[in-house]
């Protein structure tokens, strides 16, 4: 379900609240940013677009971390241990702890 | 996009073969297909979209009742013999909204489309008839622009427009105008197009990037609120085909311009006609970034998107290099490349493979490509 | 394309596939459900089955909003549009989905004003441009799509656009997963969690699956490397005998979801006591309706809805396929009466449905493998 695609915000539409122009591989469309009120994106940010709405801001750092993990897949056993310590434990912790309001 | 009756070789089913004619003048064998099988209760847009529904209409209604041995239809043009000499003949109707779009307009499309249908049948268009269906109230300036565009396109393509017909219909009935062009052409020497001659190991050549026309029109309609610097690829491909034929004529087995239904539909038709499998290499299929972006955004497969200035050719392996070299040294053929090959399996189907060893079947288009959210 | 191409890198894909081969116990058969139809589509589109061990069986879950929509709802929406001369606006996905009186496209051919929209906001725009007509947006989708419908309704209200309404068919994913797990013939080892739904609801709603059902869940992205990495993470959990919720799709999915989106949904929608799912039957508290405060924009409150109920054709075994008891090709109707062009069962109606995905991308490939092996 739910086709969504990353795009970069290239402009905010003047006079319109929460409307930005997003570019996906040279294709531009006005996208509603109203679902990102808690952390309004700025020009240059990457967002995930679904049915003309920005759903979430894409985290460059998390993407880089993921690439790092992927590149280390299948390396030596030692490296794999490192991967586990570095990445997966962290998500595990997150699922158990890290309570946030709401 | 192009619409209405387009003559196609009736498909061979799983077993029984219905062949109505062939370019090489083989006697056409008319077998069981004389029965009318078209059962759809009404005509829908899908019947003109070049995919499965179009095929059902042509094979189930038009072919059994209209097509006979003397007017043997084949891929994109018919071979007509008059007193022992053969000419190629084709017709095509153009209904496109908007009439003008980046990179072209309906008039230019109407000339190029018919020239291309002849060209991929191995024929040089010589003369063309033009029929206009005009909507009451159409501004003369709009019509005049299209006539100018047609004249210019005809001159570029080297074809003479020898006559035509004009009808006017009531306001609200023709989206401004419809144009039908009928072309007649002379076959090139040593070029024989016949899906039955296709063999495993033959290469599939594509003349350039796919999807430009279909995506341009989709965007130009404005309904999706998308913008991109993209223009239609409409052009006459005859110069490219002639150059290729000069170097590789004996190796050319089959050609088609992948218009409605895109590359996937054309190649599926080939696969069914020759009973073999077409295996494409995904990363080798040229595509502009914007076309890819629009397809990812809208959930479309670019292989289903229409082209108006590209062609596919199946070429024997020993002629492939010569054909690609000839194309890539010709203006407008720089991106021509081999995108796949013919194999025994999967029979009657098109398989797309990836560099990491994955693969998927790509079927004919069902109806028009629709943007999807899931 | 940034954030797309790097996750389709062939060398990394091969590496990830090799890692999966290393992790999968050859003596064990793994049944892993990808809940989301988008994952099903991606698995077929990228041909991922070709690079996975044969003992990893991917079961296609209920996460295709088009597939699970009962035919009666389509009939109801189209009846309203036809009888009240209303513009019927819907996503392209809906256009070929058959009702008992035909699909939206077939109604269009008979004269109903049917429009394809890319966004609910575009449906509202049609209403702005056609003040003399009423526009009904036929809303489908899970929690990913529901917030955009909510925001569109809020805009309609604040602008005072009254010639616009929503026929709401939004559904929620967790009750469907629960229904599948409650099914007695269901045997699953782990879940690939729906990534895009999770941008809204976060990862917490899946914790009960790990805790009470003892099955690992990894919320996953949709590119080949996302799915393969998720399988690596699931296999590691299974190997270690663990059951946790993990977030593979961190670049996009916040653990807590999107509070603004949840707030917009809460303002506009409330849970229906129950809703019918095609192939699964009635599931309690599994769908959304529009709150009374927005009755003016609720097509179900504005127009008389026939309330059509259509029983699924007996011969179509969609429920069994949905639960992974049968594979698509094992259904009696598959590829014969039931094809993407003439779908009978729910799972054939959308390209994301497991039967349609299998039919489009796979089934002749399967025939190819059979014929090759029979030669050998």
UniProtKB/TrEMBL annotation, chain A:
GO molecular function terms attached to this record: carbon dioxide binding; iron ion binding
Region (Disordered): 82-102
InterPro entries linked to this entry: Hydgase_assmbl_chp_CS, Hydrogenase_HupF/HypC
Domain of life: Bacteria
Compositionally biased intervals (Polar residues): 93-102
GO annotation, biological process: protein maturation
Family membership: Belongs to the HupF/HypC family.
Protein name per UniProt: HypC/HybG/HupF family hydrogenase formation chaperone
Source organism per UniProt: Alloacidobacterium dinghuense
Lineage summary: Bacteria, Pseudomonadati, Acidobacteriota, Terriglobia, Terriglobales
TrEMBL record, chain B:
Domain PurM-like N-terminal: 76-186
Top-level taxon of the source organism: Bacteria
Polar residues bias: start-end ranges: 1-17
CDD domains reported for this sequence: HypE
InterPro entries: HypE (IPR011854), PurM-like_C_dom (IPR010918), PurM-like_C_sf (IPR036676), PurM-like_N (IPR016188), PurM-like_N_sf (IPR036921)
Disordered: annotated segments: 1-24
PurM-like C-terminal domain location: 199-350
SUPFAM superfamilies referenced in this protein's UniProt entry, alphabetically: PurM C-terminal domain-like, PurM N-terminal domain-like
GO term, biological process aspect, one: protein maturation
UniProt family annotation: Belongs to the HypE family.
The protein's name in its UniProt record: Hydrogenase expression/formation protein HypE
Top-level taxonomy: Bacteria, Pseudomonadati, Acidobacteriota, Terriglobia, Terriglobales
Automatic annotation (TrEMBL), chain C:
GO molecular function: 4 iron, 4 sulfur cluster binding; carbon monoxide binding; iron ion binding
GO biological process, one term: protein maturation
Alphabetical UniProt keywords: Iron, Metal-binding
InterPro entries given in the database record: Hyd_form_HypD, HypD_1, HypD_2_sf
Pfam families: HypD
PANTHER family named among the record's database cross-references: HYDROGENASE MATURATION FACTOR HYPD, HYDROGENASE PROTEIN ASSEMBLY PROTEIN HYPD
Family: Belongs to the HypD family.
NCBIfam families in the record: hypD (TIGR00075)
Name this polypeptide is given: Hydrogenase formation protein HypD
Gene behind this protein: hypD
